[in-house]
């Protein structure tokens, strides 16, 4: 027993890594996301923030654009072809300074535009989910590699516990 006990190595670093990285109740499939805890990786936290706060950011931008243009019925919308857009009715087109607006689509009663700020938000929001799942998977693989490095000491520990 003593010889086995002397062969055991502390696993504090491994316990700490797993505790900091892996959710307490992760999904069954590692490709589903939400495996890694908040705070473990700054980039992942940024992606998650974009996913959680995207609608709020768009609402804030819409309010800002309404304030700047004076158009109360200006709205930000989304479609699969053009992505996010700012829609201004034709009746209000003359009221707006459109230098920063890039026309994307003309409708019967409105024009749809984008701005650099809206395009940046769109990129952050749409890429966040896809990139977060990929990044989580890479982080999970890195944690798994650290566990793999400790297989021998873990087996010694398991043997000591089982006897």
Automatic annotation (TrEMBL):
Residues 39-131 form the DNA mismatch repair protein MutS clamp domain. GO terms for cellular component: cytosol. It holds the Pfam family MutS_IV. Coiled coil: none annotated. GO terms for biological process: mismatch repair. The keyword DNA repair applies. One of its GO terms (molecular function) is ATP-dependent DNA damage sensor activity. Keywords: ATP-binding, DNA damage, DNA repair, DNA-binding, Nucleotide-binding. SUPFAM superfamilies: DNA repair protein MutS, domain III. The keyword ATP-binding applies. Belongs to the DNA mismatch repair MutS family. This is DNA mismatch repair protein MutS. It comes from Colwellia ponticola. The lineage of its organism: Bacteria, Pseudomonadati, Pseudomonadota, Gammaproteobacteria, Alteromonadales.
């Amino acid at each position: 027993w003593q010889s086995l006990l002397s062969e055991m190595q502390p696993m504090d670093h491994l316990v700490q890594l797993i505790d900091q990285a892996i959710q307490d109740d992760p999904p069954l499939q590692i490709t589903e996301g939400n495996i890694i805890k908040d705070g473990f990786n700054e980039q992942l936290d940024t992606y998650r923030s974009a996913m959680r706060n995207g609608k709020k950011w768009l609402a804030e931008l819409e309010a800002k654009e309404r304030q700047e243009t004076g158009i109360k019925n200006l709205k930000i919308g989304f479609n699969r072809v053009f992505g996010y857009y700012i829609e201004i009715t034709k009746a209000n087109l003359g009221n707006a300074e459109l230098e920063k607006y890039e026309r994307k689509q003309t409708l019967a009663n409105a024009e749809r535009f984008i701005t650099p700020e809206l395009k940046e938000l769109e990129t952050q929001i749409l890429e966040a989910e896809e990139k977060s799942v990929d990044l989580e998977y890479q982080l999970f693989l890195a944690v798994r590699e650290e566990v793999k490095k400790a297989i021998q000491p873990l087996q010694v520990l398991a043997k000591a516990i089982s006897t």
